[in-house]
Design brief:
This protein is α/β, with parallel strands linked by helices. It has ten helices and 14 strands. The strands form three sheets. A six-stranded mixed β-sheet has the order 6-7-8-3-9-10, sandwiched between helices. Helix 3 packs across helix 4, helix 3 runs parallel beside helix 5 and helix 4 crosses helix 5. It is globular and about 70 Å long. About 35% of the residues are buried. The C terminus is likely disordered. The site of adenosine-5'-diphosphate (ADP) has 11 residues, from strand 2 and helix 1.
Length: about 300
C-alpha cells in the first residue's frame, strides 16, 4: 500500500567537491520497519543519514515524505525536520541541561506535551535504557560515551517521531547494552506507526534487529531489500585447493584460501555449475566481508 510508505529516497546523490560520496542511493521506508544501513567505514552511511535529515544538502535526487518532495522550493522543512528524529554518532545532547531535561525538551517543544506528562514519559524511557533516577540530575559531561548514547536514544524515543535515524547507535556499547538497545528499537516500531533507520558496521546487529538492509558499498547502492533476500543472493562454496577451478574463480565474488582449502562466495544464480562441491548458505557477515574491499573493518 502506497499510504504505508513514509519516506522514499530516489537516486540521492551527494558530492563534496569532486568527491562523489553518494551515487544514486534509493530506499523506501514503510511504517513499522527497521531498516539497517550497512557499509564499511567511509562508505557514506553518515552522509546518507545526514542528507535524509537535510543536515547536508543533497547534490541530486529526491526525498519524498508522504509523497511530497521535500527538496522542492516552498516545502515546509521545519515540520519535516520535526518528524525525523536523529541520533548522531557524536552525541546530540544539550550540554547545559541535565539528563532528565534532555529527555523532556523535544517532547515539550515539538510535541507540545505538557510538562508533567513529558516528565513521566521521559522518566519511563530513561529507566528503559538503564538510566535510572541516580542519573537524572547529571549533566552530559559527567557521563560516559555509552551513557550519553542511552540518554540520546531515550530522548529520541520519548519524542515519538514517525521516523528516527540512528547513526551507529551500537558503536561503543558493550554486547549486553547493544542487545538491550536493539530490543528498544524493535519495540519502537511494534505499533506499526513508527520506523527506524540505523547504520551499523556490526553485522550481528542485523541478525538481532533489522528486517531490511540497505548496503552501501563505496557510495553505491549494492542492495536494498529484505534481509532474507539479501542472504539468499549468495552461497558459500567450500572445497580442497584442487577443487578450486578456473571457472569457479571467475564466477566467485570473492575467494578466501586456508591451509585446508578454500571458501568462495558465489551468486546463487551461478551455483548450478558447482553442485559437486560443498555448498552452504552465506551469512550476512560473509557477504559483507567478501564483497567489501575493506573486509577488515567488520567485526
Ligand atoms: P561512513 O559513515 O560510512 O563511515 P561518511 O559518510 O562519514 O562514511 O563518509 C563518506 C565519505 O564522505 C568519506 O570519504 C568522507 O571523507 C567524506 N565526507 C564526509 N563528510 C564530509 C564533509 N563534510 N566534507 C568533505 N567530505 C566529507
Ligand atoms: Mg559514519
Amino acid at each position: 500500500l502506497m499510504t504505508d510508505t513514509i519516506l522514499e529516497i530516489k537516486n540521492l546523490k551527494k558530492s563534496y567537491g569532486k568527491n562523489e560520496v553518494l551515487k544514486d542511493i534509493s530506499l523506501s521506508v514503510k511504517k513499522g520497519e527497521v531498516i539497517s544501513i550497512i557499509g564499511s567505514s567511509g562508505s557514506g552511511k553518515s552522509t546518507f543519514l545526514r542528507s535524509i535529515n537535510l543536515l547536508e544538502s543533497p547534490s541530486g535526487g529526491e526525498i519524498l515524505y508522504h509523497g511530497d518532495n521535500v527538496l522542492e522550493k516552498g516545502y515546509d522543512l521545519t515540520t519535516y525536520r520535526e518528524r525525523l528524529g536523529m541520533v548522531f554518532q557524536s552525541f546530540n545532547l544539550f550540554e547545559n541541561l541535565n539528563v532528565l531535561e534532555n529527555a523532556i525538551v523535544a517532547q515539550t517543544t515539538v510535541l507540545k506535551r505538557d510538562r508533567k506528562e513529558a516528565e513521566s514519559i521521559a522518566k519511563a524511557n530513561l529507566e528503559k535504557v538503564g538510566m535510572g533516577e541516580q542519573y537524572w540530575k547529571a549533566k552530559p559531561k559527567q557521563l560516559s560515551g555509552g551513557q550519553k548514547q542511552r540518554v540520546a536514544i531515550a530522548s529520541a524515543i520519548a519524542s515519538e517521531r514517525p521516523v528516527i535515524l540512528f547513526d551507529e547507535p551500537t558503536s561503543g556499547l558493550d554486547p549486553v547494552s547493544r542487545d538491550e538497545l536493539l530490543q528498544i528499537l524493535s519495540e519502537y516500531i511494534e505499533d506499526g506507526e513508527h520506523s527506524v533507520l540505523f547504520s551499523t558496521h556490526i553485522t550481528g546487529d542485523l541478525e538481532r534487529a533489522a528486517d531490511y538492509i540497505t548496503y552501501i558499498s563505496y557510495g553505491e547502492l549494492f542492495f536494498t531489500g529484505s534481509k532474507d533476500e539479501f542472504v539468499d543472493m549468495f552461497r558459500i562454496v567450500k572445497g580442497g585447493m584442487d577443487e578450486l577451478s578456473a571457472d569457479l574463480q571467475a564466477k566467485a565474488v570473492g575467494v578466501r584460501t586456508f591451509p585446508t582449502g578454500f571458501e568462495a562466495l558465489v551468486k546463487t544464480e551461478d551455483i548450478g555449475s558447482f553442485t559437486a562441491l560443498d555448498i552452504e548458505p552465506a551469512t550476512i557477515d560473509e557477504i559483507v566481508v567478501f564483497t567489501s574491499k575493506k573486509g577488515e573493518d567488520y567485526e
